[in-house]
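Data deposition worksheet. Section B asks for the primary sequence of the deposited chain exactly as it was used as input, without tags or linkers unless they were present during the calculation. Section C holds the resulting structure in token form. Section D is free text for depositor observations; keep each observation to a single sentence. Incomplete worksheets are returned to the depositor.
Section A, Depositor: J.P.
Section B:
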Amino acid sequence: LIDRGTTKLDILKFPSKLITISYGAGRPKSGTFKTAWDGTSSQPLFSLTSHEICVKQAHVRDSTDNTNKIVHGASQLDLLLVEINCNLWGSALQKLVVSFIQEKDKELGNSPSSPSVPHMYFVSAGIAISESEPKQVFLVEEHINTSPETGGMWVKYLNNDSPVPKLFKDPERTRRSLFLSFSQHVQYELTEGNVFISDYQGGELALTDPQIITSP
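Section C:
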């Protein structure tokens, strides 16, 4: 779904605004496909007050020195458009689960927004393109608190290579992991086996970097 030409995002149709982004002061975090930095924006992007953001760029592994190299130019834009498309699919599929739970609550006469159901969601995101030449392209996301110093933690709930949810010493974290496993089943059933999210990771409630499975 995310690779077909009919579903490729058109960058010109995105709503735009002029902002200044600062990043790179701290140590970058590198995943399999992207490098991420904590950053700030000159105006709030994803909330009414917070200027905190996460700034990401796609990288490739250089086999000659075994280091990650940032991709540049149009290739960076193409890779990040796939990433943001995955994020949009992830958000839509997770909202599908919320709607399913709300409908079942109504059918069963349960009180809505039960505290036993974690309200987990995928972060808001956008594409940033520099004004200066050569053009640089970034994926900009809502910031997730993963710092232990401020009570945060990065959590991998479900890998993309296994359907088995991770279990933790913290029962609340295990509850969220099991809920996300339940979410996969709901997505699979409601889309008649066509699509579900295979990679769940992020903070306590905010999630990022989903992988979308369309040919299980």
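Section D:
The chain has two helices and 13 strands.
The first helix runs from residue 74 to 108.
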